[in-house]
Amino acid sequence: MNGAINFTATFSHGVEWGWPIAVYLLLAGMSGGALIVAILVKFYKKQTESTPLFKAASLLSLVTILLGMVCLVADLERPLLFWKILINYNFTSVMSVGVAALCVYIPLTFVACLYAFEADLSGF
Known about the structure:
Layout: H1 19-44, H2 52-75, H3 84-87, H4 94-116, H5 118-121
Helix pairs in contact: 1-2, 2-4
């Protein structure tokens, strides 16, 4: 006995996630972690202006989640039909719940990025 746990024992075949899913999970974790840390530091230190940390974290969170979305769509069997999951929700499906969460999270990261660079963008 080697002590390893077989997580695929109840499946008829192994879980087959390609490298794009692993990259997406890494990028999504970076995105969420960067934004949470920046927001917590902003509130903990009671900062009213956009600090370089908040600017970098908001930009990092937006860019990494968008790159992660590219990885997710590229991993689909038919990537040009990804829009169908955006309009057909089944909230008993984990995929639909994840899509709904991303449909909320991505615009929020965009708004956070605009808020962080508000002073820089006011000249336009």
